[in-house]
Amino acid sequence: MKASEVLNDLRRRFPNEPEYLQAVEEVLTTIEDAYNEHPEFERYNLIERLCIPDRILSFRVSWVDDKGQVQNNMGYRIQHNNAIGPYKGGIRFHSSVNQSILKFLAFEQTFKNSLTTLAMGGAKGGSDFSPKGKSDMEVMRFCQAFVAELWRQIGPDTDVPAGDIGVGGREVGYMYGMYKKLARENTGTFTGKGLEFGGSRVRPEATGYGNVYFLLNMLATRGIDIKGKTVAISGSGNVATYTADKLLQLGAKVVTMSDSNGTIYVPEGLTREQLDYIFKLKNFYRGRIREFAEEYGCEYFEGERPWKVKCDIAMPSATQNEIDGDDARMLLANGCFAVSEGANMPSTPEAVHAFLDAHILYAPGKAANAGGVSVSGLEMAQNSQKLVWSAEEVDAKLRSIMADIHEQCRKYGQEESGYINYVKGANVAGFMKVANAMMAQGIL
Ligand code: NDP
Ligand code: 2IT
Predict the structure, then answer these.
(1) Which residues of the chain fall short of a pLDDT of 70?
(2) Which among 164, 301, 374, 409 is least buried, having the fewest CB atoms inside 10 angstroms?
């Protein structure tokens, strides 16, 4: 089947999975030329096999809340493709989680992991459980119940989960503890673990730092210095806070952060003390970003996203489809010349086209946020070696991987005019590696 026929077929078969179809459509429309150059791919029906996950595990997770009530959530693990290495990808705990969202994330992860230069296949998992407002004990009981079901399906060379929205160091610790008890081994089947029990230095920072390193590579193609630039960030979780941290180190001005209730606006740029406050607010008190506005008396846009403020650079770091066509046009009208995605698929197709048409520097998540899973890959390597690398060593490897990903995007995405279409570059580079590995291994 031709790529466009596969897409139509998937639309017919999975009509209720809009996020999955959105992610697939973007990839299939950009790899079509590369695909057509290889008639053997069509003979092996490669695209369809690459779009449909290897398997979808879904299960009920029952746990007891602090009031003694029994709660039931859905749990999932989507093992999308393991042509180049063990299944690998995060776990998301959020009330919005459903099969479509996890399928899009597992699909994207396959291409992202291919770009990292490391040997990792793609997967994603999660639950419609929300840790927000839950006690530590409730979160622990939920994580244990989730893993009591999942543990048989994962392993250090089979499938290695990690964090994502709603899953940070606390949740990974609880899940890994339960996994270890059941599997009776210490081979590090989760990444994002605490430093005391097999975690890697720089893993918490890796997605945010990696995104800034990717941005620096993009800016270098136009001779632009990051120093003094105004950056709008969305989110205030793991990715957003470490993006802001690195930007502050480099002398950029971070003017917004947000959560699902609203956006804070600090036109003069966050200070180091203010960023530390946000970090504590979110990680220890598990509070709302509104509380920052109350503490520092800055502007707060209730129920709004950051994209109406004047900025040079936007780094969406919250969730999918958080920049729509209107937001994108507003950013462009305000002079934004670079967008580097910390979140997965934060821009709608209309927004992506607006950025590409305007020829700004635009990095899709699967390239720009690959630093997180890259350092997860380095955590797996350290666990296998039973060694711990220094922060300097991990950070240097992260920088070099992000530069490598940038180069792959340039190689496959540079147009005759010189403009680098990072969407095309990332998709074609990610696709070719997985496709060649699948061809070499036969029909499975
Ligand atoms: P966190 O849970 O640490 O933070 C998520 C942030 O995004 C919070 O501020 C949260 O606000 C906000 N958010 C979540 N859902 C929504 C929503 N529906 N609408 C508005 N705001 C929302 O997650 P991460 O920082 O880990 O993840 C952020 C993004 O980065 C996700 O897209 C994730 O897939 C992606 N990513 C994460 C990686 C990682 O290593 N952690 C690696 C690569 C990509 P609130 O508290 O109100 O929910
Ligand atoms: O989207 C992602 O790349 C992640 N949530 C991190 C996955 C990982 O295995 O570290």
Answers:
(1) none
(2) 301
CB 98 within 8 A of CB 124: no
Distances (CA, A) of 307 to 4, 221, 283, 317: 33, 25, 25, 12
Residue pair 160/191 in contact (Cβ under 8 Å)? The answer is yes
CA of 369, closest atom in ligand 2: 3
Q: What's the CA gap between 214 and 5, in Å, rounded?
A: 34
CA–centroid distance, residue 103 to ligand 2 (Å):
14
Mutation choice for ligand 2 from 109, 110, 112, 193, CB with most ligand atoms inside 8 A: 109
For residue 37, the model assigns a pLDDT of: 92
| Residue 153 DSSP SS3 | helix
What are the tens digits of pLDDT across the range 312-331?
A: 999 999 999 999 999 999 99
For residue 130, the ligand closest to its alpha carbon is 1
Bridge partners, 75 (sequence order): 59, 127
Catalytically active residues, by annotation: 124
Amino acid letter, residue 227: K
3-state secondary structure at position 257: strand
**How many other C-beta atoms lie within 10 A of the C-beta of residue 279?**
15
Task: Give the residue whose CA is nearest to atom 3 of ligand 2.
Answer: 373
Cβ neighbours of residue 36 under 8 Å, at least 6 residues apart? Answer: 2, 3
pTM: 0.98
The pLDDT, as a whole number, for residue 2 is 86
| 156 CA → ligand 2 middle, Å | 16
Atom of ligand 1 at shortest distance to CA of 259?
Answer: 11
Q: Which two tokens stand for residue 36?
A: 């057509």
- The ligand 2 atom nearest the CA atom of 161: 9
Consecutive H or E run containing 160:
strand 159-162
| Sign of the torsion formed by the C-alpha atoms of 178, 179, 183 and 185 | negative
Question: Which residues are registered as beta bridge partners of 73?
Answer: 61
pLDDT given for residue 1 in this prediction: 82
Distance CA 162, CA 113 (A): 13
The secondary structure of 31-99 as a DSSP string is HHHHHHT-HHHHHTTHHHHHHS-SEEEEEEEEEE-TTS-EEEEEEEEEEEE-SSSSEEEEEEE-TT--H
Q: What is Dmax (Cα atoms) for the chain?
A: 65
The answer to whether the CB of 243 falls within 8 A of the CB of 275 is no
The CB density around residue 440, as the number of other CB atoms within 10 Å, is 8
